[in-house]
Amino acid sequence: MVNVFAYRDYRQFLRDAFVELKRERRGFSHRAFARQAGFASSNFVHLVMQGKRNLSIAGVQKVARALKLKRDESLFFENLVLFDQAKTDAERNIYYERIAANRKYAEVHRLEHGQFEYYSRWYVPVIREMILLADFQEDPEWIARHIVPNITPREAREAIDLLLELGLIDRDAKGKLVQRTRHISSGDAVMSLAMSNYQREMIERAAATIEDLPYAQREVGSVTFAVSREKLDAARTMIREFRSTLSGFLAEENAADAVYQFNMQLFNLSRVSVQGGE
Q: pTM of the entire structure?
C-alpha cells in the first residue's frame, strides 16, 4: 500500500491507492472500491478523487477502513482531508500544523515547513533584507530592536537559523551573512496559505503605520472606482508590470539604509462582481 505520510493531497493519495489495489486485484474497479468502503453511490469515491465530491468525517472513516489504515494513518488521512476542504485560512493553518507535526511526514517533506514559516512569520523576510544594510549587526538583540514593531531576540535568532537552513542567506569567506538568489516558490497549497498569512500580516502592519510613522516615512493612498471587466483585466496587468519594474529597480540597490514594505491591494467592494455573478 502507498505511504499516506508521503502525501499532502488526499485525493492524489486515493488515486494512487486505487491504482495499487487495481494492480493487486484483477478486476478491481471504482464500483468495487465504493462498495468495499460502504458508500451507497457506486461512483462516489471516483468523484472524490476527481475533486467533484468531498468526504465527511464518516466518509473518511469508511475509506480508512477500506484501505486498512492503521490508527495513526487514519488520523493523518483525516487531517489531510480537513486541510483540503477547509473553508478559511484560519482552519487551513490549524490542519497544516497538525500535518507538519507528524514525524513521518516531516521526514519526507523536510524543507516544506521551513518554507511555510518563512512567509508565515512576517519578520523573517524583513531580516533577510536587513542583511543588506551597511550597519547590520548579526546580533539578535540588535536585530530585535531595529525591527518595527520590535520582536524578541529569540525570534531574531530563530529567523537567522531558518534563513540559513533554507539557503536564502549564507556566509561569505569572512563569515559575514550575505543574501543568496534562491527564491521560494509559492505555487502549491501550502505556500499559497503561507503567502496569505504573510500578506494579511503586512496589511495589518501597513494600517498601523498610519498612526505610528511620520508622513515622510510612508506613502499610503487609495482610489475607489467603477470598472468594466475589460478595464479591470488591463489594470491588473498594469499593476503586475509596475510591481515587476519596481522590484527590478530596487534589486540594484547596493547602499541600503532602511527596509521598507510595499503592498498592493485591489479588491471588490460591490456585491455583484465584474464576473457577472455573486
A: 0.68
